[in-house]
Amino acid sequence: MHTQARKIISSLETLPDIWRIIPTFGKRPLGGKQWQHKTYSPKQLQAELIRTRCKIWSGKRYIHATGVAIVCGNYHPQGHIVAIDCDGPRAWGQILILNKKLEEDEMEKISPQKLYEGALTYLPPTVAFTSGGEYKRQLLYLIPGNSSITSSKISNLEFRGKNHASVLPPSYHPEGRYYQWVSGCSPQEKQVAIAPDWVIAQMLLKQEKARLTSFPQEKYNRRDKVDRYINLYPNIKTNIQTALTFLEVIHPRFASDYTTWIQVGMALKSVSPILLDAWDRWSQLSPKYKPGECAYKWQSFRRTGITIRTLVKFANLS
C-alpha cells in the first residue's frame, strides 16, 4: 500500500463519527452516478479502504482513491452540513458585498489581505481547510432543520449543499498539492459552527428563486406540490403587483410585531414564493430586523388560509 493510501486511512480516525464521507479521485467522488447515496462513516470507509487496498468500484472499473470528501446536505443529525468554498480574493470580497460592506466597483481598490480579514468577521470560527492556493479556504457550517438546502454560487464564492461534496485533508489535489487543515481549525480543534444568518439567507433565497424557473409552465399547472400559487391565483403576475402595492402602504409598525410580521410574510408567500425579497426589504423598516431571519422563516410557511386579503387588512389599518 503506497504512502498516500496509508495517510488517507490514518486520517479517517480523526474525523467525527457523525460525518458522512465518500472516497475521491482528485476532486471527483467515487461510487458511480449515485455516489451521494453510497456514503460511509469514517470507520466504515477506513475498513473498506483497508479491505480493498484503497481501490473503489466506480461503476465501470476499480480506481485508486486519492482522498476523501465530506458529503454536504442533510447527513447530520442536527441539520445540514454546508461548505463555503472561497476561491481567492474575489470570494472574500463577495462576502463583504453580500453583507453590504462593500460595493462591486470598490473591490479592486482593496488588498487581498484586507478583503480576507474583513470577510472573516462575518464567518464564525469553524472547521476549515485549504488546497494550498493563496487565499483559498473552505469552511464547514451547520444549518439546523430538515428542509433541503441546495447549492448557490456567486463568482468565486460557492455555497455547497445537497448533492455536493468537499474534498478533505490530506487528500491529493489534481495540481500536485495536498489539502491541509487551516491552523487551529481541524475537527479535533473546532466543532462545525452554526451557519451565520446571511449564509442561510443566501442559500434559501437562491432556492426560492429557482422554484418558479425549474419547471415548464404546463408542469406547474399539473403539479400542485411544486407551486400551488398558480392554482390559487390564475393571474399571478397581476396579483404580485397588487401585493407589492399593498405592501408599500402597510405601516412599518406591523414589521415590529412578531405576529403581524409573520402574517405579512405568509400572505406574500401565498401569492408567490418570489416575494421573499419584498418581505425582507419591508422587514428592514423595523429596528428589530435581523439579517437572514426572513429567509429562515419563509421556508417553514405552509398553506394556512392566510391570503392577499391579509395584506388588504393591514393596508387599511395603516
From TrEMBL:
<keyword id="KW-0614">Plasmid</keyword>
<dbReference type="InterPro" id="IPR014819">
    <property type="entry name" value="PriCT_2"/>
</dbReference>
<dbReference type="Pfam" id="PF08707">
    <property type="entry name" value="PriCT_2"/>
</dbReference>
<dbReference type="InterPro" id="IPR015330">
    <property type="entry name" value="DNA_primase/pol_bifunc_N"/>
</dbReference>
<protein>
    <recommendedName>
        <fullName>DNA primase/polymerase bifunctional N-terminal domain-containing protein</fullName>
    </recommendedName>
</protein>
<dbReference type="GO" id="GO:0016817">
    <property type="term" value="F:hydrolase activity, acting on acid anhydrides"/>
</dbReference>
<feature type="domain" description="DNA primase/polymerase bifunctional N-terminal">
    <location>
        <begin position="12"/>
        <end position="199"/>
    </location>
</feature>
<dbReference type="Pfam" id="PF09250">
    <property type="entry name" value="Prim-Pol"/>
</dbReference>
